[in-house]
Structure formats: structure tokens, C-alpha cells
Amino acid sequence: MTIRALSTAATGMTSQMRNIDVIANNIANVSTTGFKKQVANFEDLFYQELNIAGGPAGGTRMSPIGSQIGTGVRLVGTQRIFSQGVSTETQKPYDVMIEGQGFFRVNLGNNEFGYTRNGNFHVDANGNLVTSDGYLVSPNIRIPENSVAVNINRDGTVLVRVAGQDAFQNAGQLNLYRFTNPAGLEAIGECLFKQTASSGASVAGIATQQGFGQVIQGFLEQSNVDVVTEMVAMIQGQRAYEINANSIQTADAMLQVANNLRR
Questions:
Q1: Is the bond leading into 144 cis (omega within 30 degrees of zero)?
Q2: Cβ contacts of residue 39 below 8 Å, gap of 6+?
Q3: How many other β-carbons are positioned within 10 Å of the β-carbon of residue 43?
Q4: Which are the contacts of 49, defined by CB distance < 8 A and separation ≥ 6?
Q5: Is there a contact between 91 and 218 (Cβ–Cβ < 8 Å)?
Q6: Are 56 and 63 in contact (CB under 8 A)?
Q7: N or C: which end of the chain has fewer CB within 10 A?
Q8: 3-state secondary structure of 178
Q9: What are the tens digits of pLDDT across the range 64-93?
Q10: Secondary-structure percent of the chain, ordered helix, strand, coil, rounded to 5
Q11: CB atoms < 10 A from the CB of 90, how many?
Q12: d(Cα 49, Cα 46) in Å, to the nearest integer?
């Protein structure tokens, strides 16, 4: 006697474990600047056909429907959701957020680049604009040592005023980058993403132009995780896990009954 429910329910339990893992990571990063939540996507597995639709049903009769028994579910992917996060005012001159489309680019070294929505920038010992982890913003922007004021326009232009001068001077351009398929980006931690064959090549542009968002100084974009939504999803995942576990218990009880009939 074969009961498919045992293996089928096991795939359901495994999938819900992965689902809870994704939700837990979202909740853990609810306060992470620039974090973008993920959603687990599932698909059903192959089916065993006991009777083909349109097959013979005896004589000249044709079966109007088929008989297919599913074999479970699997995790097909975790989709990154790049919706806008809530803005928080910091009043720090090197904190910037993107309102709309686009990513900042940072230099990872070895001719590799990372892309981020986290605009929590700082100035290193050489005056270079860097991330909290010390990665240089690309293209490189250097703030003069004797600067007394820094203005970052909404188009990403960085203007500085040095001691002893009244006029601001251009210190560089904070470019934005976008992708044809941002959901195809590879997350590498530290709020950074790397382009992949699925995401397509990065396209550079100027903020406020050609569909890019605008850069706002003195603000940071918080994560787009909604705690209430994630908690509801977690409860649903937990209940789905329990129901699949009950399916295994039911299948086991049925097998026990069948074994007792042999005695």
C-alpha cells in the first residue's frame, strides 16, 4: 500500500520552513537602512496521471476529465520587493536617500561594483565619500579638508564651500543606476547587491532625469518591511506547517490500520 500523502506533506513542511526563514529575515531587518524585503514563491511539483483526459472510458466513450495526483510543492525563488521605504530625517549632511528609482554604486575593489539603496555615507581620512563599511562611492567624490558646508542637490550634484570663500564649488556628481530586472540582483550582504545575467547590465543616469528618482539630503530610506504583514504571513506559514504535519499523522494512521488488517 502506497500513500503519497507522506512524501507530499513532507514537501509542504519543507517549503513552509523556507517560507518562515524568509519572513524571519525580513523581520530581523525591519530597522536596516535601505533593506528590501523578500517574498517566497512556490510552485507545485509534477503530477502522476492515473487517467488521461480525453482517453478511452469504455467502448466509444471518452473520459471528459483526467485523474492526476500531485506530488507536492517546492520553493522556486525568493523575490526581492523594491518598493519605496519610509523616509527618516537625520539632518546629517552626508545622509542621502533616493526617492524613486535608482541605486547608488560603490567600488568593491578588483573592478567589481555593488549597488545599494543605503545612503548612510561618511567621509574617510582622505576626504573620500564612503559607505559605513568603508567602500568608496563610485564615481569617487572627494570632500576638501577645509570644507565648512556641503550641499547635495536633488540631481546628485555635490557642492562644497571651503573656509574663506563665499561661493560653493562642484565636488562631484552622485550618479544613480538602474536595472531592467532589479529582482534579478544578487544580495551579498551589507545592504549591497551585485548585477547578474538576470538583472541585466546597470544603466547610469542623473537623478531627476530619464525616469530616475531624486536625491534628498539629510534623509535615509528605511526598510520597506511592514511588521504587521510579516506577522500575519508568519502565522499563516505556521498553520500551513501544522496542517502538513497533521497530514503525515493521518497518513501514518491509515498505514497502521492497513497493517492491522493483515494480522
A1: no
A2: 22, 78, 79, 81
A3: 10
A4: 66, 67, 68
A5: yes
A6: yes
A7: C
A8: strand
A9: 777 788 889 999 999 999 999 999 999 999
A10: 25, 35, 40
A11: 17
A12: 10
| Grid cell for residue 202 | 546597470
Render pLDDT for 117-165 as a digit per residue (tens, 0 to 9): 999 999 999 999 999 999 999 999 999 988 999 999 999 999 999 988 8
Q: What is the pTM of this model?
A: 0.87
DSSP state string for 41-92:
EEEE--EEEEE-TT-B-STT-B-SS-EEEE--EEEEEEEEP-PPPPEEE---
Contact predicate 72/240, CB 8 Å: no
Domain boundaries, the chain: 5-41+74-82+225-261, 87-221
C-alpha cell of residue 35: 533593506
Residue with cell 476529465: 65
The label of the residue with cell 540582483 reads 185
Burial-class residue 94 by CB neighbours within 10 Å (0-12, 13-18, 19+).
buried
